[in-house]
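Please fill in the sequence for the structure shown.

STRUCTURE ENCODING:
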């Protein structure tokens, strides 16, 4: 498995996790946030697949499949209980994304293969862009509550 396939696998696991969270939480806002996160992951996966088609996989170093796992911070057993007393729960999602960037940087520093090193750097940059997008999703959903004068207009409800 090359680094692109590994990254796609982790992103697919993240997408599936967010979809499951969206199905298991009761609040409409949390459902919306996790649905948006799953959609963002799907879009990101599609971009990674395009990159994978453009890169010759035989020229990259192999990555251990065991390392290609998504490790969620929010569990599926009782996500509402976990999120209930955590006003900044979205930071868990951002941390997961930062962990992916760290993983790519670690692979980059440990490989001797020049193509893999270049790919890891490029993928880490794509992950940083994705991290910004995920932060923007949360800001979009939460914005009406952060400014008193706009509290009556919710981003999730039509006017």
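FILLED IN BY: designer on duty
SEQUENCE:
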């Amino acid at each position: 498995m090359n680094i692109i396939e590994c990254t796609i696998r982790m992103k697919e696991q993240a997408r599936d996790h967010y979809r499951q969270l969206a199905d298991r939480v009761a609040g409409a806002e949390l459902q919306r946030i996790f649905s948006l996160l799953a959609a963002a992951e799907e879009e990101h996966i599609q971009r990674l697949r395009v990159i994978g088609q453009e890169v010759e996989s035989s020229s990259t170093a192999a990555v251990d499949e065991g390392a290609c796992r998504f490790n969620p911070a929010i569990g599926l057993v009782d996500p509402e209980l976990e999120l209930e007393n955590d006003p900044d729960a979205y930071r868990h999602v951002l941390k997961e994304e930062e962990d992916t960037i760290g993983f790519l940087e670690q692979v980059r520093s440990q490989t001797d293969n020049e193509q893999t090193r270049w790919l890891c750097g490029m993928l880490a940059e794509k992950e940083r862009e994705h991290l910004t997008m995920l932060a923007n999703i949360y800001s979009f959903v939460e914005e009406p509550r952060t400014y008193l004068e706009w509290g009556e207009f919710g981003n999730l409800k039509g006017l």
